[in-house]
Amino acid sequence: MNVYLQELKMAVSSAIYWTIGLLLMMTLYMMMFPALSKDVSAIQEIFNNFPPEFVKALGLTTFDLSNIIGFYGYLFTYILLIGSVYAMKSGISVLSEEVRSKTSDFLVAKPISRNRIVTAKLMSVLTLIIIQNIIYTIGAFTVAHMIATTSFNQSIFLLINVSLFLVQLFFVALGLLISVLMKKIKTVLPITLGIVFGFFIIQMLNQSLDDAKLAYITPFAYFDAADIIESASFDITFFILNMIIILIFTVLTYFIYNKRDMSSV
Amino acid sequence: MNVIEIINLTKYYGKARGIEKVSFNVEEGEIFGFIGPNGAGKSTTIRTLLSLIYPTSGSAKIFGKDVIKEGPEIREHIGYLPSEVFYYDNMRVVDLLKYSASFYPNVNKNRIFELAEIMDLDLNKKIDDLSYGNKKKVGIVQGLLHSPKLIILDEPTSGLDPLMQKKFFDLIREENKKGATVLFSSHVLSEVQKLCTRVGIIKDGAMVKVEDIHTIKNSNYKKFNIEMKDPVSVDYFNFDGVSDLTVEGNSVHFIFSGDMNTVIEKMVERKINNLIVEEPTLEEIFIHYYEKEA
Prior knowledge:
The structure holds 2 protein chains of 2 kinds.
Chain A: H1 2-30, H2 33-38, H3 40-48, H4 52-57, H5 68-100, H6 104-107, H7 114-147, H8 154-181, H9 188-209, H10 225-231, H11 236-259
Helix pairs in contact in A: 1-5, 1-7, 5-7, 5-8, 5-9, 7-8, 8-11
Chain B: E1 2-13, E2 16-27, E3 31-35, H1 42-49, E4 57-62, E5 65-66, H2 71-75, E6 78-81, H3 93-101, H4 110-119, H5 132-144, E7 150-154, H6 162-177, E8 181-186, H7 189-195, E9 198-203, E10 206-212, H8 213-218, E11 221-228, E12 242-248, E13 251-257, H9 260-268, E14 272-278, H10 282-293
Helix pairs in contact in B: 4-5
């Protein structure tokens, strides 16, 4: 419990900034809805001048921008991207922070097992992400209700928002695994950005090429907002795939961290 | 009873040698000095005892329990001061010490303030603002605050000024009197001389010798400084029992252990201007050990 609380204390301010960032981005974008939804045909006109592959890659063809859920679904691609960067950053740094600040000799020499260290740190990251999701989702509902002129499907709207949490779980697990695989991570953000944007680009290719296989290798495709809007549910195959990957990454993290030599300073 | 039992402990970092077949015991209630030059494997041995790293082969027990299998349980009764101290920069000293205390059951929180008082440590400063010596003090306090049964100190005095060193040694002696066993690693031999009852000498990853400190100091090693009347050849004093022999013109220096009469007979044959026979320092004895045993 003491490690968990200590980790929370050290990470809470960063979680607050990222959550405010997400809320700000969502609010500013949604405020454009009343103006844009009136002129959807004009916007569509502009898009028609772009190469079709490009428009597809950006996901512009799949959303009905005149409808608030479609409009939100388009934005959500980028909410996912930012939320994923935060999750991955937290996942990578929570264990590797001890190596960077050279405090492993302090923590690991305490009467606590390696498993309990991983659990405490993992739980602290999850706690912050869950709180972030609750606050963000409440914010999104509030803003959507303020802006929507007609009623919209609340459960679809909720499903879209829950997908943020599920994708974040993937990146937390991946981040943890990377942090125990690499001997020393000097700076977290470059690796985080590289990997998250890598997955994001695969998703863009996936949308542009219509190659179904690509979808399996990027979590951004697992909970495609356009699909959720269409089917009003998650794709069960991808949902299970996501959970299995998270489980494997987490088990591997525990296993490797237990076997690992703490590097001396 | 042995508090620490190390049997054939070997650690390789990839292909690089850490330690090879290190074996020794530390008995309950003693202050055991662990001596060797930098890179000899002192920290490797200690970090294995704390299961910060895992041995390639061999085993170690503390309080009769395996250090890997029962690590967390064992560490409840260990106080460890690493050779390089690093803590969470953004924390205040007092918060770090309270965090440290929170890992142990039944810690008397007043002990933090007592120890800080003795070591003259400002509890309200941020870790980031501390000098190296002050960080070391934080390390000492966090290592002792839970009154451990076994205190493991890895090069504890670097960065402490002589006054603080003395206070620190007094503190260790006091803990020892209360029943704590101490493993004290150092490359500064005079420290060990002041504090320890037995010493283990490690060199190039292997144990050279474990000996009672008095045996080492009392064994019949004498340091000879002789001023001859006439120059002698190097070979003249090069006989059994002589080590560290230097001959520069008229002056001869060596360390001798063995039958004193052989040296006296040699000296009687020649004229001598001046003769000093003295107790060698521990350092000189160790150098001698290293040369002989390596």
